[in-house]
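Students often ask why inverse folding is considered easier than folding. One informal answer: many sequences map to the same fold, so there is more than one right answer. In these notes we will look at a single instance of the problem. The structure comes first.
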């Protein structure tokens, strides 16, 4: 899903499709090591456009876009409609939505189902959904938390900073620019070369994948590190607490960024291995 995020505040599906064109060049090499790597066409078929210009909240020092301009009648997007289709598949497994930008696409999907289906159907819909939010990046995040106590939501507003290469207390040598150049950006084919030199701040080049913990929460679960349904266990995506047992909402464990960077050696070793697979 192309969602609005970061200071640029744009949602541009073409950016994802452009990267998939590069991925297509190395996918056959990756598939030699693991046949589950999807083709670029398979990924293109599930790439959807979200709402542009939706990013921003008071938590980021700006008011952002009002809630009634993000969700409601006539606010459906290609992405929100696709989320509903995925949720409606006859598959009992939960659907995880990892929110790296704004949450308005999944919020609009919830809004529509709530207003177009009966109470029982809506309850089933919510019970199948899992949302991992990196911060409150648009004004639908509070709406989700305030309106749906039973909705499974993980909100990371501090732990995720453990992904920054220079996070205090972490080992920066495992993800600074030197590491990224040697293990990703240089000598690893066209997709490696597309890896950015820095995140949003060019003054501090290195790995700034602050939103990646939302996905790493699931990757480490596949590795047997954690049960994704139990955020208090801790894993590559952080460790979380449930302040109110009446609400299925999880927030950062007080250990802070260490909850993520304590796994840095394991995460970077896997990333390095996959980068090596990109080569013939």
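Output (designed amino acids):
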């Amino acid at each position: 899903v192309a969602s609005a995020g970061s200071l640029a505040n744009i949602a541009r599906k073409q950016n994802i499709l452009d990267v998939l064109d590069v991925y297509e060049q190395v996918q056959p090499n990756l598939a030699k090591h693991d046949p589950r790597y999807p083709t670029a066409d398979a990924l293109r078929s599930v790439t959807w456009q979200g709402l542009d210009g939706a990013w921003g909240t008071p938590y980021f020092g700006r008011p952002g876009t009002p809630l009634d301009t993000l969700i409601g009648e006539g606010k459906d997007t290609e992405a929100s409609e696709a989320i509903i289709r995925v949720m409606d598949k006859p598959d009992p497994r939960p659907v995880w939505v990892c929110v790296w930008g704004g949450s308005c696409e999944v919020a609009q999907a919830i809004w529509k189902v709530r207003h177009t289906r009966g109470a029982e159907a809506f309850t089933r819909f919510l019970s199948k959904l899992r949302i991992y939010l990196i911060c409150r990046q648009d004004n639908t995040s509070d709406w989700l938390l305030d309106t749906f106590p039973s909705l499974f939501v993980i909100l990371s507003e501090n732990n995720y900073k453990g992904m920054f290469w220079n996070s205090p207390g972490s080992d920066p040598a495992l993800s600074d620019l030197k590491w990224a150049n040697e293990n990703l950006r240089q000598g690893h084919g066209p997709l490696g070369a597309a890896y950015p030199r820095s995140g949003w701040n060019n003054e501090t080049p290195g790995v700034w994948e602050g939103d990646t913990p939302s996905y790493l929460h699931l990757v480490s679960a596949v590795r047997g590190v954690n049960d994704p349904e139990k955020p208090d266990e801790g894993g590559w995506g952080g460790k979380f607490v449930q302040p109110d047992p009446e609400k299925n909402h999880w927030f950062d464990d007080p250990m802070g960024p260490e909850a993520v960077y304590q796994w840095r050696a394991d995460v970077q070793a896997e990333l390095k291995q996959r980068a090596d697979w990109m080569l013939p």
